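Lecture 7 notes: from sequence to structure.
We start with the chain below.
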Amino acid sequence: MSFLDCFSALFRAKVGSVPAQRAVLLGGAKVKGEEAVRMGTVDSAHGSEGELSEATMRLGEELAKRKWDGEDYGEIRKKSLYPDLCNILGLDPVKVISKL
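Predicted structure tokens for the same chain:
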């Protein structure tokens, strides 16, 4: 079995620890919410879909209040956060338009 280049790039960016990468990809380790928080893969874990949905909406509203320039956000994403993934997907910085 092999993985798409875009998945591999995102996985490497989100799971920085090589031993954790091996455990998940080669060992098939299942990662639950709290463990994913400890690994730094996610920012928070929630007990139900409802709690997750509420937290997602709160985060979206908080980010929208910042009124960041979409082009600046795109540049940060491309050059600093996920450069390998953005290059593989051919993403250029684009203006992000909030739907909130």
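Points to note: The CA atoms of residues 60 and 66 lie 10 Å apart. The radius of gyration is 16 Å.
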